[in-house]
Amino acid sequence: MVILLGMMHVLVAMLVLVAVAVAMAASAPRTPRSEDTDVFGFDALRSPQNAASDADLPALRRYPARDGEQLAWRLYDSTASQILVFVHGSSAHGRSYHRLAAAIAASGAAKVALPNLRGHYLSGRRRGDIEYVGQLEDDMADLIAELRRQHFDGPIVLGGHSSGGGFVIRFAGGAYAQLASRFLLLSPAIPTSATLRGRSAGGWAQVNLRRIIGLAILNTLGIRGFNALPVIEFNKPVRFRDGSETLAYSWRLCTAYQPRTRYAADVQKLAARAAVLIGEHDEAVDAQRLRELFDRAAPASAFTILPDTNHFAIFTSSAVHEKLAQWLMVTD
Asked: How far does the signal peptide extend, from start to end residue (predicted)?
């Protein structure tokens, strides 16, 4: 009888926990998303040296993911055999990194592949969502397999900016890390760390923290039926939108796009294979705190803070492009 009563108490406690978690998951953000705050200075992406239309880009390609979905990417060819696969930041897609990719390819440092991650413009069934946590890593492994099928046999460097850099950290700590020879991180976002400027990346993101906590509890209990709920929205001003941006992410996409909760273990796996660059005036990531994290977890990584550089200049500046090309050319 005592055992039965104990089991009943545990069951009641579990039911209460599930009810609380569901209530938290169902909660709405307290404040509406800003429609006009320009955190990063999007005008910089419209300048003559950075603006790019689809007509300026290499042809859109498709590669088959393991679930049969045809995902979008572009190739910037080069005389180099090395291949830089570069992952875009949150809400964006590969087009934003056209100038970076073109400059790297023209330098002869690497061919560049720009994927549009599943759940973003032209990739996947649903904008802002994927099927399961870990799918983005599977997709990246499938893209690398496609490059090999097309006889691009050089070493793979996996790079990314902002959330794309966070994804690279996750990839380096996961099952597919051996597919890349090196890693390149530009202002990497690690949302669960103190390196991000507040929970909002300096005002760029509106995070539904109550929902995230509730969904994390439910997933710990094996309940995944609510994982398509949106947990984060992005404050891209209306005047800069063109319909290609992805303005909200589900829990599973948000989780798959960033390092694991115990992010230091992922960072440690980068070791001497990584270069990290961040601007001293980055609006989303605190450069000094990021340096401190890498000093502790991955002291062998090459870490550089660039003066007079912000979150967008880290990938649009010609001077930065030259530094990236120089690093890529030193292959040891």
From this structure: 1-25
The answer to whether the pTM exceeds 0.85 is yes
Q: Which pLDDT belongs to residue 199?
A: 76
212, 231 Cβ separation under 8 angstroms = yes
Q: What is the DSSP string of 309-323?
A: --TTHHHH-HHHHHH
Residue whose pair of structure tokens reads 């300048």 in the numeric block: 47
State the average pLDDT over residues 266-282: 98
pLDDT higher than threshold 70 for residue 226: yes
Residues 139-156 as b or e (16 or more Cβ within 10 Å = b):
bbbbbbebbeeeebeeeb
Q: What angle do CA 172, 176, 182 make, to 5 degrees?
A: 45
User: 276-300: buried (b, 16+ CB within 10 Å) or exposed (e) per residue?
Assistant: bbbbeebbbbbbeebbebbeebbee
Which positions ≥6 away from 10 have C-beta within 8 Å? none
Report the candidate in 75, 247, 232 with the shortest Cα–Cα distance to residue 152. 75
CATH number at residue 22: 3.40.50.1820
Strand partners, 196: 285
* pLDDT classification of 188: cutoffs 50, 70, 90: very high
- The domain total for the chain is 1
Looking at residue 270, its pLDDT comes to 98
- Alpha-carbon distance 179 to 158, whole Å? 9
Contact 276, 293 (CB under 8 A): no
For residues 261 and 259, give the distance between their C-alpha atoms in angstroms, rounded to a whole number.
7
Q: Residue 302: is it exposed, middle or buried by C-beta count within 10 angstroms (0-12/13-18/19+)?
A: middle
Residues in the chain, how many?
332
Burial of 112 from C-beta contacts in 10 A (0-12 / 13-18 / 19+) = buried
* pLDDT at site 9: 40
Contact 297, 268 (CB under 8 A): yes
How far apart (Å, rounded) are the C-alpha atoms in residues 271 and 27?
40
